[in-house]
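Suppose a colleague, Dr. K., hands you the sequence of a protein chain of 205 amino acids and asks what its three-dimensional shape might be. Before reaching for any lab equipment, you can write down a predicted structure in token form. Begin with the sequence itself:
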Amino acid sequence: MEEVKAKMNSKYYLAWAKDEGIRKKGANGGFVTATLVSALENDFIDVALVVEKKSVYEGIPVLTSDPEVVKECAGSLHGAPVNLTKYVVEHAAKKRIGLPVKPCDARGIIEQAKRRQVNLDNIFMIGLNCGGTLHPLRMREMAADFYGLDPDSVVREEIKEGKIFLVSEEEGGEEKEKWIKIDELEAKGYGRRDACKSCITKIPT
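The predicted structure, expressed as tokens, is then:
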């Protein structure tokens, strides 16, 4: 840990959830989930907007004031490319709301604020480092054709280090991880959505 501290400067911090359950379920230590839970419990926000995972290919936006629901929605979901802006405008324009945002979400919310549809003073955005999202149907095809997996056996996915990782659950509950470089997949028409490939803002600021 001392070596890590020595390499860091005042602009960057390592953070993770103190709650072991959140830390285990979160994509990278559960910091975002823990922050939203704390914001609700300490009356910093009225509601949180999170995405409930139905599968690696489907997620449903959920507006909640229940910290337990936020905990259940921990983790990343690249195969469900929802834009959260309209949910903020339609359901929480007059509430204090907290939500994790991809760059496209942040830009959309800011544009709606310019049109006076929302008040940025009431919106607590947590910017996410975004490597892109995948179209769910193409992702299913990709799992079968390139990874040699039953699409329904895929339980987790991750984009990191220029690769797309898929984790499948085999018979007996054993998990198996496979990865392919994003460039190889995209050269064959798969991988990230076109809008994500052209995005130059990977971290909302």
